[in-house]
Amino acid sequence: MNQDRRDRLRDAAIAVLAREGGRGLTHRAVDAEAVVPTGTAKNYFPTRDTLLRAAAERCAEQYRVPAATVAQTGPETGPEAGRGPFDAAQLAALLAGLLRNAAGPGRTRVLAYLELRAEAARRTWLATLLDPVAAADFAAHAHLLRAAGLPAGPERARALTLALHGAVPHLLTGAPATLAAAGLDDLDRFTRELLAAVCEEETG
């Protein structure tokens, strides 16, 4: 099969998921989004499950781009060598940039991913396919904490990751009162305060 057309169909499936939600993901909708003859998507992905799998695999591929940037971030030398110099202030700026990307240029991919996660609640095989994408964030954030010279125990990486994951749906919705209540109306301040809370030294 033509790989370029296959990728075009997978990208179309992501766009449909982001715009129409899981119920809107049909072969006909993907054909229309990709501007290909009716029946093309069904020829490449015969069932709805294979269409979902194709979209999930494409989301995972797209996720690797920002993930690779994160993995290369760190000081210029030492065990956390990467793109340096790097400190807590730069980490806060990086995290704010990732959140802006999720709500901006990466919005379609992120919306599609969240729709796939909802579908995965009813499809074990899809949950298994998506599992490495979400799980990788915990290790990535532990790496960033270490690279910035901050406490990076598993509990801190979990707190940071879950807070960032929880922020994304609110950013996508864009409800102003909720954004203000969550502190997400100022992402630079939000990530600075989040890091301060996550990395606060234990006492007692």
Tell me what you see in this structure:
The chain is mainly alpha-helical. 73% of the residues lie in helices and 0% in strands. It is built from ten helices and no strands. The protein has helices at residues 3-20, 27-34, 40-44, 48-71, 88-103, 107-120, 124-147, 154-173, 176-182, 187-198.
How is the secondary structure organized here?
Layout: H1 3-20, H2 27-34, H3 40-44, H4 48-71, H5 88-103, H6 107-120, H7 124-147, H8 154-173, H9 176-182, H10 187-198
Shape: elongated
Provide the gyration radius in Å. 19 Å
Distance between the termini: 64 Å
Which regions are unreliable across 5 or more consecutive residues at pLDDT < 50? 76-81
Largest sheet: none
Series of H and E elements: HHHHHHHHHH
- Overall pLDDT score: 89
Q: Strand tally, please? A: 0
Number of separate helices: 10
